[in-house]
Write a structure and sequence with these properties.
With 158 residues, the chain is an alpha+beta fold. Helix content is 27%, strand content 23%. The protein has one domain. A seven-stranded antiparallel beta sheet has the order 1-2-3-7-6-5-4. The radius of gyration is 19 Å and the shape is globular.
């Protein structure tokens, strides 16, 4: 009987490892030192990195879910290049910001949940301004958090 239990335990363990590996395959992640490298890899063409990011963006971390199309992206966008990007986005009002879930739906380890602590916008605990691509639904809808006192930009879609 103990050998049957051992076989069952091994089977459960192998199935667990297999499911964990499948989860990683369905939620691939990538790092690109430059936007040009993301373009060369096809990440922009496939829609995993949005085309509205400035070409000078660097240190791009990206993760997406193949089933849900949810994605999370972190990038460094120099302050002088932000105007180009922000012209393509719509700022969110205080009530809209209060309604937005700012967590990364994929639980990426490089995601900084404390970037947006609370509202209203004049609260010193708020470290980012929030924008949206305007479209409320679809694969190309992103929320964008632009760090106020740095160069980090966080993008996410659900």
């Amino acid at each position: 009987m103990p050998s049957n239990c051992l076989i069952l335990v091994r089977g459960v363990l192998i199935a667990s490892i297999g499911l964990s590996a499948c989860k990683d395959l369905e939620r691939p992640s990538a790092y690109y030192p430059t936007y040009a490298e993301a373009v060369a890899d096809g990440a922009v063409k496939r829609g995993w990195i949005p085309g509205f990011l400035p070409t000078v963006a660097r240190e791009l971390h990206e993760q997406h879910d193949l089933d849900t199309n949810a994605s999370c992206i972190k990038a460094i966008v120099p302050t002088e290049a932000r105007a180009e990007m922000l012209a393509k986005l719509s700022p969110l009002s205080v009530p809209q910001v209060q309604a937005v879930d700012t967590s990364c739906p994929l639980k990426s380890i490089w995601w900084f949940d404390g970037l947006i602590d609370q509202q209203p916008a004049n609260d010193s605990a708020l470290h980012a301004d929030l924008y949206t691509t305007g479209s409320e639904t679809g694969a190309n809808h992103y929320f964008v958090a632009v760090q106020r006192d740095g160069e980090e930009v966080y993008l996410w879609s659900r």
